[in-house]
Structure to design on (664 residues):
C-alpha cells in the first residue's frame, strides 16, 4: 500500500522549515500530469505565497552552447554562494530531455560538491511534451524553492533554442556563458541571445586559453557597445572566468550584485517581476483555455468532422473555429 | 442615409462573377472589427468555399528587406502573369502599417500598370493591432480573391520581422528578394529567413550591378547547398533578375512552375495546404477562446483583483489562472 500524501498544512509547514523531502515532493506534484496533484500543488503554493517576500531573492538564467562548461560553472558559482552564507537552488529548463531521455541536470554527479551541500538544492529539468509545459513547471518550482528559503535561484538552459526566452521571462538576470576563441556563430548561439544577456562570461579562461579568452572578451565588449540600451538601463558587462580553476568567480558575483543593486534602486527589478507575472498569468490562462476547450465533450464530438472539412478546403478555419466555439455553452 | 449591405447571395454571386466592387466590399467585411460584419463575411466565405477548387491556385510569399525593390518586382511578375493569361492578386501582411500609417501597398501608384489591369487585383495590408489579427484577415482575403477567379496570389511582406512566418504559413512558395553585393546581415535579413526560401532572387541585376548580382547568386547558392533538405524535397534555386528592366522574369516563372509541378507530383503541395489549414484552425480557436474569455462578464469582474494579487506576488499565475477559468461556467 502506498503511503497517503502529506496534507497541505504538512507541506506548507515542512517547506517553510526547509524540509528537502517535502520540497522535493511538492515539486513532483507541480510536475505531475494528474489533476488532483495539480490542485494540491496550487493550494500549497497559494499558502506559501501569502508570506514569502520573493523580492529578496535573485533569479539568474544561465545559458550557453553545449560544451561551454555550464555544469562546472553552475557548481563553482553555487559553491561560492554557499561560502558566502547564501542558499542557492539550481533548476533547469530543457524540453529536449523528454525526447532524448538525457536531462541537462539529470546526472547530478556532474555537480557532486554542490549536490552534497546542505545549503544548496538541485533539481533536474521536468519531463514534458512541450516547452510551455516545462516552463510553467519550472516557474512553479521557483516559487517553492524560494518559499523553502533558497535565496538565489539559478535556471540552467541548453542554449540552443526557445528555452532561453522562457528562462529570461522567469529570471531577473540573464547570464550567457561563452567559449574562448570562437565567434558566436561557431558556438551555435542563436541571433538575439547575445542581445538578451546582462552578463557575458567567457569561461575556460585557464592555461593556454587565457589569451584567447581575453580576445573573446574584447570582441564581445565591442559587440555589446553596439547594442541598444536595455530597458533596465544596465550596460551589459563582459567578464572572463575559469570555473575549473575557480578564478573570476568573486568578480562575477560582484558584477551580479552591482546589477541587482542598480535595478533595485531604479525600480526596474520590481517592475520586471510584475511584467513577468502578467506574462505568466496570460500564458497560464491560454494553456488552461485550450485544455478546457479540447476536453469539452461537445468539442470532442464535433472536432473531427469540422477539422476534416477544413483540411479538405470546404470550410474556412475562421468559420470552423466559430462553429466549434459556438458549441461551448459559456455561462454569461 | 447609407445604403444597406448587399445580401450573402448578392456577394456570392458577384464574387463568383469577379465583380471587383463586391470583392473589395467582402474583404472590407473580413477586415472589419464589427461582429455582424464578421458573421456576414464568414457566411459569404462558407458559401464560396463549397465549390472553389483552391488547389488550382498558387500562393506565393514575396519578401525582402526595404529597398530591395519589392513593389517593382511584384509589378513585373504580375504583368508577366497577366500576359500569360493568368489572373494575379496581390495582398500584403504588414502589421507595422497600423502603427506607421504607411502600408507597403498603401500607395498603389507604385504598381501603376498592374493596378490598371483588369486581370489583376491589388489590396493593401489591413490595419490591425496585432500580427495575428492582420494575418487572419489576409488569410480570409486569399480565400475571397481565389473564389473571384484570381489564380495566383502574391503575399507581400516587409521582410524584417515575424510577418514572414505568418506569410509562409499561408502560401505554397516562399520567395526571398535579395540585393546584389551585400551579405544577408547587411540587408537586415533575420537568421532563418534564408532557410525558409524556396526561391532566392537577386534583384537589380542591371547596369553596373550585373557582376555583383552574379557574385551574390554564387554566395547564396553555396549557402543553400549547406542547408538541410526541405520536407518538400525541393532544392532551393537562386536566380538573378532585374524587375526594372524586366529581365529574368521568364526564367523565374519557369522555376516557380517547376516548383509547383514537383510538389503537386510528390503530394507535398496538398499535404502542406492541409497542414496550414490545421494550423490556422488552431490559431483561430485560440484567438476566439481568448476573446470569449476576456469578454466574459464574470472574468471582467474578477480580473483586476486577481491580476493585482499576481503582480504583488501574493498569488501564483497558475493559481490565478485556475481561479479565473473556474468562474467561466462551461456547459458540459
Amino acid at each position: 500500500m502506498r503511503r497517503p500524501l502529506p496534507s497541505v498544512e504538512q507541506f506548507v509547514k515542512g517547506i517553510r522549515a526547509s524540509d528537502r523531502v517535502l520540497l522535493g515532493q511538492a515539486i513532483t506534484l507541480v510536475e505531475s500530469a494528474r489533476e488532483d496533484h495539480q490542485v494540491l500543488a496550487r493550494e500549497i503554493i497559494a499558502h506559501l505565497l501569502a508570506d514569502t517576500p520573493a523580492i529578496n531573492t535573485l533569479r539568474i538564467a544561465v545559458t550557453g552552447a553545449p560544451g561551454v562548461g555550464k555544469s562546472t560553472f553552475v557548481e563553482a558559482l553555487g559553491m561560492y554562494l554557499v561560502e558566502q552564507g547564501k542558499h542557492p537552488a539550481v533548476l533547469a529548463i530543457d524540453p529536449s530531455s523528454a525526447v532524448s531521455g538525457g536531462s541537462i541536470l539529470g546526472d547530478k554527479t556532474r555537480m557532486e560538491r554542490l549536490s552534497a551541500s546542505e545549503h544548496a538544492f538541485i533539481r533536474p529539468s521536468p519531463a514534458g511534451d512541450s516547452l510551455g509545459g516545462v516552463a510553467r513547471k519550472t516557474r512553479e518550482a521557483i516559487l517553492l524553492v524560494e518559499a523553502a528559503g533558497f535565496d538565489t535561484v539559478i535556471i540552467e538552459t541548453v542554449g540552443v533554442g526557445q528555452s532561453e526566452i522562457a528562462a529570461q521571462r522567469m529570471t531577473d538576470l540573464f547570464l550567457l556563458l561563452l567559449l574562448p576563441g570562437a565567434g558566436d556563430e561557431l558556438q551555435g548561439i542563436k541571433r538575439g541571445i547575445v542581445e538578451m544577456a546582462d552578463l557575458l562570461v567567457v569561461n575556460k579562461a585557464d592555461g593556454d586559453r587565457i589569451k584567447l579568452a581575453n580576445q573573446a572578451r574584447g570582441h564581445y565588449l565591442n559587440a555589446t557597445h553596439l547594442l541598444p540600451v536595455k530597458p533596465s538601463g544596465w550596460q551589459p558587462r563582459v567578464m572572463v572566468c575559469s570555473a575549473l580553476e575557480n578564478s573570476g568567480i568573486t568578480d562575477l558575483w560582484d558584477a551580479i550584485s552591482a546589477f541587482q543593486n542598480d535595478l533595485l534602486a531604479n525600480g526596474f527589478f520590481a517592475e520586471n517581476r510584475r511584467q513577468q507575472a502578467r506574462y505568466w498569468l496570460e500564458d497560464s490562462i491560454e494553456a488552461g483555455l485550450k485544455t478546457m476547450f479540447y476536453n469539452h465533450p461537445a468539442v470532442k464530438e464535433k472536432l473531427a468532422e469540422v477539422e476534416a472539412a477544413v483540411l479538405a478546403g470546404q470550410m474556412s478555419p475562421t468559420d470552423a473555429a466559430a462553429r466549434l466555439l459556438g458549441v461551448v455553452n459559456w455561462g454569461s
In short: The first strand of chain A starts at residue 58 and ends at 63. The CA atoms of residues 1 and 303 of chain A lie 41 Å apart.
